[in-house]
Amino acid sequence: MFEHLVIFKFNDKITPAKQQEFVAQLLALQDQIPGIVDLTAGVNVTEETDRIQGFTLGLRVTFEDQEALRAYGPHPAHQAFVASLDGWIENVIVTDYPIPAK
């Protein structure tokens, strides 16, 4: 399995309602894209406010394997989400890593 983590930093135009809209779009991807084992997304509620650095929304996706992760990027549902970020996003951090078998 592979883990895909994304943390979003939005510009100052973002509203709480718009962030929740993005969360709903992300959660819907699990039913739209094959190979997703688990997906969570949400608005950052950490109390470590000195460490937020403006990043306010997180996404975690667990994929069956690296091939499923690779197919996710160009998938039309993912591309539609990426397009919806236009004009809202300031920065994104992404990390992917294999999950060792237990």
How do you describe this structure in short?
The protein is an alpha+beta fold. Helices cover 32% and strands 35% of the residues. Strands 2-3-1-4 form a 4-stranded antiparallel sheet.
Number of strands: 4
Runs in which pLDDT lies below 50 for 5 or more consecutive residues are none
The strands making up the biggest β-sheet line up spatially as 2-3-1-4
Q: Based on Cα principal axes, name the global outline.
A: globular
Structural class: alpha+beta
Biggest sheet character? 4 strands, antiparallel
Q: Helix count?
A: 3
Helix content: 25-40%
Mean pLDDT rating? 95
Spatial separation of the terminal alpha carbons:
11 Å
Task: Please state roughly what percent of the residues sit in beta strands, choosing from under 5%, 5-15%, 15-25%, 25-35%, 35-45% or over 45%.
Answer: 35-45%
Q: Radius of gyration in whole Å, from Cα?
A: 14 Å
The ordered string of helix (H) and strand (E) elements is: EHEEHHE
Protein name: Dabb family protein
InterPro entries: Dabb (IPR013097), Dimeric_a/b-barrel (IPR011008), HS1/DABB1-like (IPR044662)
Domain Stress-response A/B barrel: 2-97
Pfam family, one: Dabb
Describe what you observe in this structure:
- By secondary structure, the protein is α+β, with helices and mostly antiparallel strands.
- It has a domain at 25-53 and 62-89.
- Helices cover 32% and strands 35% of the residues.
- It has three helices and four strands, in the order E-H-E-E-H-H-E.
- It has helices at residues 16-32, 66-72, 76-84; strands at 2-10, 36-43, 55-63, 89-98.
- It has a four-stranded antiparallel β-sheet.
- Helix 1 (16-32) runs antiparallel to helix 3.
- The longest helix is centred in the first third of the chain and has 17 residues, at 16-32.
- The relative contact order is 0.32.
